[in-house]
Amino acid sequence: MTNMTPTPTFNRAALLTRGARVGAGVLAASTAGGVFAATAAADPLSASDIALVRLLVGVELLTADFYAQAIAASNTTGKVKKYLAIAANNEQEHYTAVSGILTGAGIAPATSADFDFSYPRGTFATEAAIVAQAVKLEGIALGAYLGALTSVQAVALNTVFGSVAAAEAQHQGFFSAASGGRAFSLAFPPALKVADTSNALDAYTA
After folding, report:
1. Class assignment of domain 12-202?
2. Which residues contact 124 (CB under 8 A, 6 or more apart)?
3. Which of 140, 147, 133, 121 is nearest to 48 (CA)?
4. Domain boundaries defined on the chain
């Protein structure tokens, strides 16, 4: 596990601003299995929507990286081990869907090769520590997508964002219960504003 050092091409600011060109026509967001499709044939994405999707790509890269490291640590057993693998697969599919929005618009999304992420010391030392961090990261991911639903201008993307939010809520519920907490409690989980999501992501990046 290394400290986060952005490449010259990307950093947190670049993640939100790189590639101002937006393609017109069809914008596709799909998983490897083609479960989701979002189209906006009439207009290109707005600048604010581009920034929002870039931020969500960053969230997906972070969660995918976390689950990969958690699995590699080999410190979990039973259902926790099983659901770490499921969550990891889900996050990879989420990344494919969200990054596909950018590639469909003619913009190159960030990839796992562009960033290293850092975590608090001991994050992967025990099952309890892994589960606790999973709860925190899934809370960030859920809040990010709930916030996206309230701020995105291209409403065709709401199907993708809503579906991902539902999956992140499931992840958080499982890991919360696994940590000895409640599987769920809030009737209305809080949405994160773009700035709040950016600040949360910044805690894991340089």
Report:
1. mainly alpha
2. 1, 69, 70, 73, 75, 130
3. 147
4. 12-202
